[in-house]
Each structure stands twice: as structure tokens, then as C-alpha cells.
Amino acid sequence: MPNYRFPHATLAVMAKAPIPGQVKTRLIPALGAEGASRLHAALLRRTVGAMLHANLCPIQLWCSPDTDHPEFIELQVLGTVLKTQCPGDLGARMGHAARECLETARKVIIIGTDCPVLHAGFVEQAIITLTNGHDAIVGPAEDGGYYLLGLNRTADELFQSMPWGGERVLLETRRRLDNLGWRWSELAPLWDVDRPEDLQRLESVNL
């Protein structure tokens, strides 16, 4: 059993299998289907590798469409637990992961793999914030979404009928957290790689 710094937290990484034509579709015009898939795989490996190296807490890799892809198997060997995402939209899948993680952990940190500048320090800060009494913490993304959601408890309002993929996800999440009456805070904003214009910034990142 690894000697985690925060053994009562769980990091849930939402991950799609790097299948050409099914990932990073907005980058296909610039990179082609194979190139977009390779970039997705590189971001997946970089994100999970950084979190494994930090040894902060147990890591669950929530896989779509299933856990069979060789990239997932390799990350399992390195120390993640593989889970299969449930059917439904992103909100349904994130909500399911959050509920399941909180059955055995005191707090859950949910991230994706689209943010190349997300390092373990942000996850550590999120865990510490939750440990110090906050109910939730959000990592704002520059495109209007978020790259991290940390929770001590969960609520369906955070995941249902959300305009996923749009520019209002962060604003709507803030509004719903306020309506819940929870104590919550935010991390520093970061950028995702989703659109062709993001590729130039990616050149400065060592994947």
C-alpha cells in the first residue's frame, strides 16, 4: 500500500480512450484524427503520470467507453484503479463517479486530462482546502468551464441539466454552489487544449 499524503481523499480522473475520430474532435481539422488521438493519449499519460508521481492520494481512472484500452491498462499497472464511466452525459458520469468515490473517501477531486499545465500542486491545494472545512472547490478554466471540482459531499444540482461544453459551465456551477449554501472557493484559472488556437500555447509544454 503506497504511503499517500492524503489517504482519505480520492482523485477521480475522467478519461476517454484515445480512439481516432472520437477524441479531441475540434482539433481534427488541424491535426487529423490520428494526430488528435496521439495528443489526447499524451495528455492522458502526462496528467496521470504527474499525479502518480506526487503520491497524494489513491487515483481512480474513470474510463470511457470501457477499461480495455492498452493506455488504460498501462496506467493501471503503474498504480491507478480502473472504473468504467456510466452511460449519460458528462454530468451523469461525473456525478456517478463523485458519489461512488465518496462512499469510501472523505473527499473527491475530479479532473479531466485536457489541461497540460495542471500539476499536482493544484490537487494538493484542493485537498487541503476541503480538509480545512470547505464543501467544494473549483478550478476555473479560461474557456468558461472548469478543470477541477473538489467535493466533501455531492449534490445532483451540480451535475444535472448543465450546459456542458459551453462558456457558461463555470458561471452556472458558481450559482448552484451559492444556492446550495455551501462554503466553497476557487483555484487559479488554467487553460485547456480543446481548439486549434490552443495548440500554439501547447508548444511551451513538455508532454
TrEMBL record:
It comes from Methylocaldum marinum. This is Glycosyltransferase. It comes from the Bacteria. Coiled coil: none annotated. InterPro entries: Nucleotide-diphossugar_trans, Trfase_1_rSAM/seldom-assoc. It holds the Pfam family DUF2064.
